[in-house]
Amino acid sequence: MKIRIFDTTLRDGEQTPGVSLSPEKKLNIAKKLDVLGIDAIETGFPVISDGERNAVKMIANENLQSELCGLARTNKKDIDAAVDCGLNYIHTFIATSDIHLEYKLKMTREQALEKAIDAVEYGKSRGLQVEFSAEDATRTDREFLKKVFGEVAKAGADRIDIPDTVGYSTPQYIAEITKDAIDATKLPISVHCHNDFGLAVANAISGIQAGAECAHVTINGIGERAGNASLEELVMALNSLQFDQKWETNINKELLYETSRYVSKIIGITVQPNKAIVGENAFGHESGIHTHGVLNNPLTYEPISPEIVGRTRWLQVGKHAGIHGMNAMLKEYGIVPNEEQTKKILDKVKNIGDQGKQVTEVELLSLANEVIGENKLKRIVQLTGFSVSTGVGTMPYAFVKLNIDGKEMVATDYGVGPVDASLNAIQKITGQITDEVRLKEYRLDSISGGANALCEVTVKVEDARGNIISSKSVGEDIVTTSVQAMVDGINRIMLKSLLKEKKV
Questions:
Q1: Smallest Cα–Cα separation from 179: which of 170, 165, 168, 189?
Q2: By C-alpha distance, which of 91, 399, 36, 49 is closest to 232?
Q3: So what's the architecture of 284-372 in CATH?
Q4: Sign of the dihedral defined by the CA atoms of residues 112, 114, 120, 126, in that order
Q5: What does pTM read for this prediction?
Q6: For residues 482 and 268, what is the distance between their CA atoms, to the nearest angstrom?
Q7: Cα torsion through 444, 449, 450, 453, rounded to 10
Q8: Torsion from C-alpha of 332, 335, 336, 339, nearest 10 degrees
Q9: Fewer beta carbons within 10 angstroms: which end of the chain, N or C?
C-alpha cells in the first residue's frame, strides 16, 4: 500500500522556537522537498503576515510536482488568504477538546462544530480540496470527535486529519480513533503526531496500521516543543521494518540525508548526533565487537545499508576499539602492522581514549608510524598568515597565506561575512594545487557564556573523489577558529589522498 507523505516543515516545522524563515529560504526548502518526492507540502499559514503570503505565493508559482497546501483556521478570511496565494488545497482546523474549547476558544462543542462545518462548506464553495483537522483530537471526547468527523464529511471534506497536538496519545489509542474516523467518514485519514513523549513516529505507524493513508511529518522531526514525527524515521521504518502489510512511499530515500543536512543548515538547528537515520553517529562504529561484526557483515550491527539513505558508514578508534576495526582503517592507507605492532598501536589508542580524547584518522596514522618506525606524518598545509577587513557599508574581505608542502601561496577573496571571505580565500588557494576541496558543512557552537565565550567550529570538507573529513577547532575568535578548522580539515583530506597514493 502506498502511504501519502504530507510534509509540514514549512509550517509546523517553522514554529520551532527560534526558527523564522524568509520567503526565499522557504522556497528553497520547498524545492528540496519536491525533489525528495513529497506528496503534499504544507507551504505555510498565509493569513499570518505579508512575508508568509509572499512565501506561499512564490512556492505556488514554482510549478512543483508536489501538492501545495495552506493552513487555515475555520473562517473565511483565512481560507480566502489561501486562495489569494494561488492554492487550491487547504488544511483547516479548529480545536475540539474541552480544555481548548473552554480556555482558548471560549466556545461550546456545538459552536465549534458549526464553525467546522461552515469552513468546510465555504472551502468547497471556492473550489478547494479541503482537509479538516480536529486540533487536540487525542484529548477530545471520543464520541464528540466521531460526531465532528462525521458532520464535516457530510459537509464535503475531502480528507480528515487526526492531530495528536501535544503528543499525548499512545499507539493503541491512535489506532482506535483512526478506526473511528474511517467508520464515521469513509474518507482518507491522515495522522499528525507530535513527539512530546517520544512516541510521534510510533503513533504515526500505529495510525497507518489502523488504516490511515497519510502521515504529517517534518524533516528532522522539527516543530513546536519536542517536534513532530520525523519524516526520515517514518519513511525508513515503513520501508524496512517487518509488518503484516508492505508499505511504500514516493520518497527518494537516497536523498534523505542530503535533505536533512540542507534543512538543518537553513534553519540553524543542528541534528543531534544519535538521531536515527540522519544523525552523525547513525552509521558510526567504535566498539571492537561492533566493528568486527560490521566488517564481516554490515547487517550484524546495521539494520539497513547506509547507502540507501545517502550515507556511508565510518569507523572510529578509541578506548572501545578492537584490532579488526583499527586494522581496517590502517589498511586503507596500505599500513599492515604485524601482531606485536598492532597491539602497541591499540594500546596507544586506548590510552588516549582513557584521557577523554578522540583519535582522528591522521592521529591514528601518526601513532602507527611511531610504532612501525617510519617517518612521522607531516603536515602538508600550514596557515602562515591571514587578515580580514569588515564593517558597515563595506563587503567583507580576507587575505590568506598558506604554506602547502613548502610552497608559499596567497589569495584574497570576498564573502557575505569575514568567515565566508576567509574560507573562500582558502579554497581559492587549494583549488590551484589539487583537485577541488570544498566546504561541505559548517557549524558554530558556543561552549561557554559571556562576551569572551569560547566558540567551537566544526567543518566538513570533501574532495573530488568523494572523501569527506571532519575537523574541529576551539577558540575565542570566531574567524580565526573557523580558519584553523578549515585548514586542519584540508590538511587531513589532502593527507588522506596522498597516503592512499603512497606519496607520504
A1: 189
A2: 36
A3: Orthogonal Bundle (1.10)
A4: negative
A5: 0.76
A6: 17
A7: -40
A8: -120
A9: N
